[in-house]
Write a structure and sequence with these properties.
The protein is an alpha+beta fold. About 20% of the residues lie in helices and about 35% in strands. It has 2 domains: about 1-40, no CATH class; about 45-125, Jelly Rolls (Sandwich), CATH 2.60.120. The strands form 2 sheets. Strands 1-10-3-8-5-6 form a 6-stranded antiparallel β-sheet, with no helix packed on it. Strands 2-9-4-7 form a 4-stranded antiparallel β-sheet, with no helix packed on it. It is elongated.
């Protein structure tokens, strides 16, 4: 019985020690730290006017938080070249209409340029201008 208890204690100490030795938020870190979540999971809220241009790098996410109607019309989206994915609906955006509170991601390999037809509050995560 003593051998089993000693073995279990050693395993626990090694596991805890490995967790302490890992850099917070790194692959070796067994837990997601607050700083990691804040740095990688937070959205930036931007108030944009009608006619403003928005450039989204590949992988950049956006959510239309507020707009005048239930949807936000955008120009510049070319479905044959661009891939804007509505993650809420599980479809690609083909008509240039973004639905309020839906989660979108630039699934293309290049930047995506959008021009807003009306003012809106947009939540953004990733690289954008």
């Amino acid at each position: 019985m003593r051998v089993n208890a000693a073995l279990i204690t050693a395993i626990i100490l090694i596991t805890v020690g490995a967790g302490w030795a890992a850099d917070p938020g790194s692959r070796e870190d067994p837990l997601a730290t607050v700083s990691y979540v804040t740095r990688h999971a937070s959205f930036s809220r931007q108030l944009l006017n009608a006619g403003d241009k928005l450039t989204l790098a590949p992988g950049t996410e956006l959510i239309v938080a507020e707009c005048a109607t239930t949807g936000l019309a955008v120009r510049g989206l070319e479905p044959e070249r661009d891939t804007l994915i509505d993650m809420s609906a599980g479809t690609e955006v083909l008509d240039g209409m973004l639905i309020r509170c839906h989660h979108y991601i630039n699934g293309a390999e290049q930047d995506l340029w959008l021009k807003l037809d009306s003012p809106a509050a947009i939540l953004l995560r990733g690289e954008w201008q």
